[in-house]
Each structure stands twice: as C-alpha cells, then as structure tokens.
Write a structure and sequence with these properties.
The protein is mainly beta. The protein has one domain: Beta Barrel (Maltoporin, Chain A). The chain is built from five helices and 42 strands. The strands form eight sheets. The protein has a 22-stranded antiparallel β-barrel. The protein has a five-stranded mixed sheet with strand order 3-9-10-7-8. Strands 4-5-6 form a three-stranded antiparallel sheet. A hairpin with a 2-residue loop joins strand 12 and strand 13. It is globular. The model has no long low-confidence stretch (mean pLDDT about 95).
C-alpha cells in the first residue's frame, strides 16, 4: 500500500510516489484519523524535515533548516495557492483543519520551476475530499476539548451523471492555551523589559474562532468554485504586550475560480483557469515600546509604578487596519497543456499571468477602525493602485522513461516580473529503479522568493523604500526508497541547499539582501514496519547549517534543530478499536534571543512530547459509519520552549501543556 501512493504535486499530474522526481511525504485521511491530527500545524510537526512552532497567532517554522514565518514555503489547496496576499505567508492557524483533507503532500526542496515564486524550500499541497470526484457522500464532524474548544463541520459531495456539487464548512472556537503565568516570567519570556512597567496582576485571555468553507460545481469539464476563510484570534505570544485581553487579529481571504478541463485528443489535454483573490485584515496591538515608555517617564511617570490602564490605552494602542478598505486583490490566469505522445514520454507546459494589487494599512493610535482613503488624489499616500506587481510566466517539463528502469525529468520556468525582470529556474531529476521494490533519485532544483511589501518598506507609504532582490536557491539531492517486504519500507535522502540574496532584518522593519552564501546539508529518513496488529513509523531529520557570526561568536546551526525524531505506534486492539501514540523529539538548539535589544545567543534544552489517540472506527449504525476519538496531547504535561525565530518579541515561546479533545465523525 505504501509503495503505491499516487501524488500530483511533484509534476502537476498524477504519478506513483515511487518514481516521482521529488522527495514527497504523504499524509492520508487514514493517517490523520489514526494519529489524531486535528489541524495542519499538528500534522506538519510530525513530518521529517519540517519544524512547526506554535505561537497562537499562526505557526512559525519552515523546512530543511530555513525557519521563519513559513514564507519560504508555498501553500496550496488542490493545487491553488492559499498564501496570504500581504506577506506571502502560509499563515497556518486554526482555519486549516483536517476535517476535509483526503491527502496532504509535503514536497521538500525548491519547486519554482513548476510553481514560480515562493516555493523556495518546499510545497504543502492540501488535497480535499470535496474536490475529489470519488468522494460521494456526507460527513459531519464534531469536536470538544479543554480551553473551551469546540468545532463542527460538514463535508459533502454528490455526483449526478455529468454534474457534481460539493462543499465543506467548519466553525471552530477556542480559548487556546492559557499563558497567564508565562507572560509574567521575567527570565524566559519578557527578559530585557522593565518589569515595573507592567500591570501587577496582568491578565491573559484568548478568544479565537475560524470559519473556513469551500464549494465547487462542475459539469462536463466546466467548473466554478470558492475557497474562503475568516479567522479571528488574539495575537498570542508574538509580542510583549501590556494588554493581552484587548488585542486581536482578524483575517479574511477568499479565492474564486472558474475553469475548464478538456480532452482535445486521447493524447492531449488542456486546462484553463481564472482565479481571483481578495484579502482584508485588521487588528490591534498593545506591544511595549521602549521609546514611548521613556517619553512617559520624562513627562512625569514614576518608573517605580506600573503603567495605568489609561496610560496603556492612550499611549500603547497600535491599530493596523484594512477594515474600511476594498481589500488587496490578486488576478491570476493559467493555461496548462498535458501531452502524452507515447507511454514513455509526457510533456507538460503552460502560461501564467499573475497580478497583485495590494493595499497598505491604515494606522491609528486612538481608533479601532480608522478611515481608509483610496481616492486617486495625488496628495493621498494611500491612493490606488498602492502597490501593484505583475508577471508573465512560461513553464515546460518533459518526462521520459528509458529502458523501463530510468525516469528522466527536465523542466524550466521563465518568469518576467515588472520589478525584478527576468528570472529563470531549472529542475532535473533521474529516478532509477534497478529492482521492482527499489528506487533511487538524483535531483536538482532551483527556486526564488520575491521580497514582500513588508520587506520593501512599502506597507504604509506609496513608495518602495528599500531596494531588494529575490532570494535564490539551488538544491542537490539524492535519495533511496526500498521496500524490503510488504511490511517493511524505508527511505533516506541527503540534500545540499545553497541560498543567496537571503533577505534578513537589520532592525525591526528594515531589511537587506545578505551577501553571505547560506549552505545547509541535511539527511531525512523514514521507516515503516508492520507486524501483526502493530504498525510503526519513525522519521529522522539531521540538519547542518554554516556558522553564523552573532553576539561576538561563530555558531553552527544557529536557530536550527540539528536532530529531530518523530515516531508513531498504532495498535489495532480489535477490528474497530485502535490505540496510537506519537513522540516528537527536538534536540538542543542555540538561537538568537527574541528580544531585538538583547544581542545574545540562548540555549533551549532538548525535549520530547508524547501524544495519545484512542479511536473506535467505522462503527456501523444503520446507514451511517461512526468514528469516536479521545486525543491527549503532551500527555506528561511537559514544559518546553521553541525559539522566537522572527525576533522582535519574547525571548522564546512556551508550547502548550496537556490538552484533551474528543472527536465524533459521522459518514453517510
């Protein structure tokens, strides 16, 4: 079964994972249920080569040693991009749940030759149930848990001859984790900030909810659809705040699409699709600001006394808003041709037009919904078009089978950008199958990431303040996949990443292209074994990054975990009852202190986290199939930290303690 998984992300077409020209980890619906994955963050932290850091606003992390806000990774839903528009972040929070997931494919390594910008270190492709023609039914999911967590969702799909209608809907709310004690920790959290400035009995409160939904209608190759979410949450631990009860962040992102799949001949197929995105976001911070605090002291505030509620509201409220605006937009058109002249040759090519029409943000220190002026007056610094960029792209990929054992892939993409001009990326792959149960991969890939509006300093003024070039990446890779028996499968891959023009902060909001070449070497491996009623899976990741000069010392693997181990053990006690345990191990890590004013390297100890899932699956009740689950995360309530890799906030992030969840799934 594991050797016959079909994937589409490696080549934009269905192919066996064994011969795909990429390293791809696949998580199926069955894996999701057995392991108790409730959201995408939980799923990703169990994938080799991936690090996911919970901050309770959205997941930080990345792939293969490049950790940030996940802006180096391209996030797709059914092959369509779902990054946020303003910063090209994956912005993975509670809106990306697992109720509608058929399969997740995590591609490791650069993929710009197929997908263009921002597939710098990899691609996450969520393949949904409602988008799959073989899903013909209805599902209802309900969940409840600690921190007043609750969720309800529906997924449906109906085939009526040539007509199909499908969709999904979910409502989720939770108080998330309670960090009321941690935010007062002057050593592990707000180190470097004036302790006496903060309220003595500072409260912590999170109210988070998300509302993702999707729908699609298709008829004889024509289709229209929508992917949309609304998300409201606190700002978690991202900043050192003076008021954790009043701050919040609200997001809206919608994708509308329409297209056609047409078989021209038995050898030639065409897909043409138009996409329209719209995004708005707004929120409020009460982040501590040293300059404002010093001014208050000069004006008479007693530094031995905490700030009053009035002083906090009048001086530290920081509103960012697109609430009264028409929102940022993106217009995209794709044409793709799939030509298969013979059983041993396939060619994929296409053209893409892509335009971003971004809006900046209105700022205020006294109004939660500041006015947003979009008039075209020359005096208006926020006038439209505020920040517009567009590109035209051509891509071509050839795959050839040689001697029934060699699978050759060659591909390239040409992107012409109105700002960055011409960018060419190339990929090649050679997969050798000397034996039926063995495959060996030799891969090379290139990628680039465009600077964001944040990095260009153009978020609040209609002008690019900083000249930056795209980040470039080259990766060399070799891997082996071996099926020893039907019950024992292993794979191992070694890679070398070489990044140039990397964009790094010099201060909080000032960025530059680094003149340093970043080299990262890594190894990833997985082992699957089944004996009787027991199945086990073990994943291992090793990363070695060049030394960084920081705080007067040269440090190898700064901000990178050297070793990561993920493991799962599933016991089928009966035909319907399973017990699953998962362990995540993180080695000791040296990282920059999260407070930008403290130039110091901190050491975060190694730790292991264990989760348990108990499942009664596929219980027949009349025409329905019912699954019930009890999930326990961080079973031993271990206390552990992860680094603040974005810098500009707390020293480090405390991760949630023990949590319990109950799930109920009805399939009709």
């Amino acid at each position: 079964e594991l050797m016959n998984v079909e994937v589409i992300t490696a080549s934009k077409k269905s192919e066996n994972q064994k011969i795909a020209p990429a390293t791809i980890y696949v998580v199926t619906e069955k894996d999701i249920i057995e392991n108790g994955y409730t959201d995408l963050t939980n799923l990703l932290e169990n994938v080799p080569g991936v690090v996911a850091i919970r901050t309770d606003i959205f997941a930080f992390g990345g792939q293969r040693g490049f950790l940030s806000n996940f802006s180096q990774t391209l996030l797709l839903v059914n092959g369509r991009e779902m990054q946020n528009l303003i910063a090209s972040e994956t912005f993975i929070a509670t809106q990306f749940a697992t109720h509608n997931i058929k399969q997740v494919e995590i591609l490791q390594g650069p993929a710009s030759a197929l997908y263009g910008a921002n597939a710098l270190v990899g691609v996450i492709n969520i393949i949904t149930k409602n988008d799959s023609p073989d899903f013909n039914g209805t599902e209802y999911h309900a969940g409840i848990g600690t921190q007043q967590t609750q969720s309800q969702s529906f997924v449906f799909g109906k085939n009526l001859k040539d007509f199909r209608i499908s969709g999904s809907f979910r409502y989720f709310r939770s108080n998330l984790w309670d960090y009321k004690d941690f935010i007062k920790d002057t050593i592990n959290f707000r180190q470097g900030f004036p302790t006496k400035a903060f309220p003595v009995n500072q409260q912590f409160k999170q109210n988070s909810w998300s509302l993702p939904y999707a729908a699609k209608i298709s008829y004889k190759g024509f289709y229209v659809g929508i992917e949309r979410y609304e998300l409201k949450g606190s700002r978690g631990l991202e900043h050192i705040s003076l008021d954790y009860k009043s701050q919040y962040d609200y997001r809206q992102l919608a994708l509308y699409y329409a297209g056609i799949d047409k078989e021209i001949t038995d050898k030639l197929k065409i897909n043409a699709e138009l996409q329209f995105y719209k995004e708005r976001f707004w929120g409020v911070n009460y982040s501590f600001n040293n300059a404002i605090y010093d001014t208050l002291i000069k004006n008479g505030h007693n530094p031995d006394l905490p700030l009053t509620d009035k002083e906090i509201q009048e001086n530290f409220m920081d509103v960012y808003s697109q609430q009264s605006s028409s929102g940022s937009k993106r217009y995209k058109g794709n044409v793709q041709l799939n030509y298969v002249p013979s059983q041993t040759l396939s060619i994929i090519g296409g053209y893409t037009f892509d335009m971003f029409d971004l809006l900046g943000i209105a700022l205020s220190t006294d109004r939660l919904n500041p006015d947003f002026d979009e008039t075209r007056s020359i005096e208006n610094s926020m006038r439209k078009p505020f920040f517009r960029q567009y590109k035209n792209s051509l891509f071509l990929q050839l795959q050839k089978t040689l001697f029934d054992k060699l699978y050759l892939t060659l591909g390239g993409r040409f992107d012409h950008h109105n700002i960055y001009k011409s960018i060419f990326t190339f990929r090649s792959g050679l997969v050798y199958t000397p034996f039926q149960k063995t495959s060996i991969r030799f891969l090379f890939g290139q990628a680039f990431r465009e600077p964001t509006i944040f990095e260009l300093g153009a978020l609040t003024v209609k002008k690019v303040a900083i000249e930056l070039n795209p980040v470039r990446m080259n990766t060399f890779e070799v891997g082996i996949n071996q099926s020893f028996t039907s019950n024992l499968i292993a794979n191992i891959v070694a890679y070398k990443n070489i990044a140039t023009n990397f964009i790094e902060p010099t201060e909080t909001v000032i960025f530059k292209n680094s003149d340093k070449v970043i080299n990262i070497f890594g190894i990833e491996s997985q082992l699957f074994y089944k004996i009787g009623k027991i199945r086990t899976e073990i994943g291992y990741s090793y990363v070695q990054k060049d030394a960084d000069d920081y705080a007067g010392v040269s440090t190898v693997n700064l901000g990178v975990y050297t070793h990561r181990i993920t493991g799962g053990l599933t016991f089928n006690a009966t035909d319907t009852f399973t017990i699953n345990s998962r362990i995540n191990y993180y080695s000791e890590i040296k990282a920059k202190h999260g407070n930008k004013d403290i130039t110091q390297i901190i050491t975060i100890p190694s730790y292991a986290k264990i989760n348990l899932t108990f499942s009664y699956v596929k219980i027949k009740v009349y025409d329905a199939e019912i699954t019930t689950q009890l999930l326990v995360t961080n079973v031993f309530d271990s206390k552990f930290y992860q680094p603040d890799i974005r810098i500009g906030g707390p020293k480090q992030f405390l991760q949630p303690g023990r949590q319990l969840f109950c799930n109920l799934i009805f399939k009709f």
